[in-house]
Amino acid sequence: MKFSAFFRLALFGIKTVLFRKKDPILGTVILTDKCNLSCKHCSVNNITSVIHPYTQVLGEMERLYEMGVRILFFCGGETFLWRDGEKTLRDLVIEAKKMGFLIVNTVTNGTMPIDLPEADLILLSLDGDRAAHNAIRGDTYDTIMENVRNASADNICFYMAINQINKGAIQSVCAAARNSKNVRAVSFNFHTPYPDTRELALSREEKTECCRVIGRMIGEGYPVLNLPAAFPYLINNTFPTPCFQCVVIENGRLSTCGRCIDVPGLCAECGYFFVAEYTLLFRGNFRIVFEALTTYLKYV
Question: In total, how many domains does the chain have?
C-alpha cells in the first residue's frame, strides 16, 4: 500500500472513531450476477444473468466516489465475464484508479485467465483442498491453480468461505497460499446461512475450532489476512451489524454493508470476517487497530 493511500485511510479511521461518523469508505459494485459456476454455498448467482452496461457501472462508481468511498471492489457473479463491447474488467479497474480510488480490488472464482496487474488485490475463491473445493464448486481446482501459476502479477489473495464441507481444509488452503508465487495471502469467512444454504452453517463449537486452526496458522507464519482479535466476536456473533462504513451498489440500488441485509435475521448470523473487523476497527477497538496496521500493511 502506498504511504499516501495509507495516510488518507488512516485519517478517515481517526475521524470515524473520534466523531462516531457513519460515512462509507469501502464500496462494492456488482457488475453482474451471471456466473459460469453453480456453487453449493452460493445464493446469488444467475438470478437475472444480466451484465450491467459500462455507462451504468461508471455512474455507480462515480456515485460511490462522491459518497467518500475510496476502497472499491468489483463483484459478481463472475467478474471476468463482464464485458460491454470492447470494454472489459481491466477497463473498469483502470478507470477506477483514474477516478481517484485508493485501492481497487476484484473478486473472481479463478476459472478464467488472471491477467489483471492493475488491481491491488484479486480475491480468488479457493474453498479447500482439491476434494473439498471440487465438492463445492465442481471440477475446477486444477484449472484454478493453473491460472494462479500463470497469472500476470502477484496480487492474488485466496478467499475461502468455511462451511460443513470444507471446514477441515483450512490448513491446506493456507499452505497453497504460502506455496503459490502469485498469492500474497488467504482471507477466511464463515458461511453466512441464506435460507437455501442453512445446512452448510457451522455451529459455535465448529467456529471455535476453525478459529483455533487459523490462529495457529498465523502463529506459524502462514500469510493470513484476517485479524485474530475479531475471532471471539465472530464465534459468538457479537460484533455490531451492519457495517456502516461498507456499501454495495447493484443495478443502481444502494445497500448498507451487503446485499444480505435484506434477508430477515441474517445479520445476526453474519459470517463475514471483514464486517466484524471493520465494525470493530471503526469503533476504536485497540487490538483490532494494531492488528489491522500490521496485517494490511504487510499484504495489501
Answer: 1
| Amino acid code (one letter) for 229 | A
C-alpha cell at 122: 484479486
Banded pLDDT at 96 (limits 50, 70, 90): very high
CATH number of the structural domain spanning residue 185: 3.20.20.70
The predicted model gives 269-297 an average pLDDT of 95
**Residue 249 forms beta bridges with which residues?**
29, 254
pLDDT score for 3: 65
Q: Does some domain include residue 150? A: yes
Q: Which contacts qualify for 210-213: CB closer than 8 Å, 24 or more apart?
A: 210/162, 210/167, 210/170, 211/235, 213/170, 213/171
Q: Would 4 be classed as within a structural domain?
A: no
What's the angle, vertex CA 15, arms to CA 14 and CA 19, rounded to 5? 120
Span of 12-21, 158-167, 233-242 with lowest mean pLDDT = 12-21
Long-range contacts at 13-22 (CB < 8 A, ≥ 24 apart): 13/281, 13/282, 13/289, 16/245, 16/282, 17/282, 17/283, 17/284, 22/244, 22/245
What range does the domain containing 130 cover?
Answer: 23-299
Residue 196: per-residue pLDDT: 93
